[in-house]
Amino acid sequence: ELKKFRANPELLEKFNKVLGYYKGTKSYHNYSPYRYFGEASSKRVMRDFSVSKIFEENGSEWILLKVEGDSFMLNQIRKMVSLAVLVTRSGINADLMEKSFENRKFNIPNAPSLGLYLERTLFSYYKQKLEKSTVELKDIDFNQYEGELDKIKHEMILPTIIKEEKETQDFVTFCYNVDCRMHNYPWLVEGGELPEIGTGEKPKNSGNADKPKLEEGDEDEADVKNGNRSD
């Protein structure tokens, strides 16, 4: 039955709208452990987050997402994908996305890491310096390798992701587990209770003992920085 599912235009339009809430400079304290509202380190710049491609493989439909940002924190992208998927499939008002950037503490589950990969690194700041530099420096441009990169993606990376998802059904299990634990996510229901304003700030006089508990999987990803794009 799951293989027969196809996202209709209305659903894709809503999904892209939800992803659009991430664009710009926002506070991502709810998207990574040990982060709090009001801290400079919680602010990140997302330049794009959208549906990049839709294709069929092995009788199933796959949706490829592209996210481009100046830097990413631990598990940030996994939680961004998670909330976008959950808001879209639940049918609640997409304005909930804006609430996640406010001074509230949301419990956002981690989406599976399967399928997350770094496609390329962008050097926008370096290129700006290059334009002003009096020293002759070479431009770093991956566009000349577009054909080779695309070949690696479609012949090695995507087939591996599809094969593993078919065997493990990580995303199916993820959605099922959330459905079974809706008491942990009351805000996922239309008119449901939102976390209180003021709960996203760091407790005063807090030390390491007051660090928020790690979500499952929070310990298994490295911090990714310096203007990266992931698909």
From TrEMBL:
PANTHER family (alphabetical): PSEUDOURIDYLATE SYNTHASE, PSEUDOURIDYLATE SYNTHASE 1 HOMOLOG
Chain intervals with Basic and acidic residues compositional bias: 199-215
UniProt keyword tRNA processing, yes or no: yes
Top EC class of this enzyme: isomerase
One of the Pfam families matching this protein, by short name: PseudoU_synth_1
Family that this chain belongs to: Belongs to the tRNA pseudouridine synthase TruA family.
Catalytic activity: uridine(38/39/40) in tRNA = pseudouridine(38/39/40) in tRNA
Domain (Pseudouridine synthase I TruA alpha/beta) ranges: 21-121
GO CC term, one of those recorded: nucleus
Keyword set, alphabetical order: Isomerase, tRNA processing
Organism: Conidiobolus coronatus (strain ATCC 28846 / CBS 209.66 / NRRL 28638) (Delacroixia coronata)
Domain of life according to the entry: Eukaryota
Segments of this protein annotated with the region Disordered: 193-231
Biological process, per Gene Ontology: mRNA pseudouridine synthesis; tRNA pseudouridine synthesis
EC number: 5.4.99.12
Any one Gene Ontology molecular-function term assigned to this protein's record: tRNA pseudouridine(38-40) synthase activity
Name of the protein in question: tRNA pseudouridine synthase
